[in-house]
Amino acid sequence: MIGLHPLLIMVRHVLPNVLGPVLVIATINLGLAILTEAMLSFLGVGMPPTEPSLGTLIRIGNEFLFSGIWWVVIFPSITLALLVLAVNLLGDWLRDALNPKLR
């Protein structure tokens, strides 16, 4: 490595070892951002009521939960859970695919 440009050293040695953990942390934070937006919209302080949001759909469905229309709250809740799960599984798959120790 003596005589190589520092940028080349970073691209060859540092970037492959850092890329996996950074992508996993980014996808976990994306899942947390989705949950945070849904939570704030559920509480009424997130997106405006005219914008579609899973949290707003869950809040509206919560009003009809005990009147026998249970699917209005169940389907957005399942969608939110599956969306966050899919983002986290994507991050785990990317970590495994980009792990230089497994190549």
UniProtKB/TrEMBL annotation:
<keyword id="KW-0472">Membrane</keyword>
<dbReference type="InterPro" id="IPR050366">
    <property type="entry name" value="BP-dependent_transpt_permease"/>
</dbReference>
<dbReference type="Pfam" id="PF00528">
    <property type="entry name" value="BPD_transp_1"/>
</dbReference>
<keyword id="KW-1133">Transmembrane helix</keyword>
<feature type="domain" description="ABC transmembrane type-1">
    <location>
        <begin position="1"/>
        <end position="91"/>
    </location>
</feature>
<dbReference type="InterPro" id="IPR035906">
    <property type="entry name" value="MetI-like_sf"/>
</dbReference>
<feature type="transmembrane region" description="Helical">
    <location>
        <begin position="20"/>
        <end position="43"/>
    </location>
</feature>
<keyword id="KW-0813">Transport</keyword>
<keyword id="KW-0812">Transmembrane</keyword>
<feature type="transmembrane region" description="Helical">
    <location>
        <begin position="64"/>
        <end position="90"/>
    </location>
</feature>
<comment type="similarity">
    <text>Belongs to the binding-protein-dependent transport system permease family.</text>
</comment>
<protein>
    <submittedName>
        <fullName>ABC transporter permease subunit</fullName>
    </submittedName>
</protein>
<dbReference type="InterPro" id="IPR000515">
    <property type="entry name" value="MetI-like"/>
</dbReference>
<keyword id="KW-1003">Cell membrane</keyword>
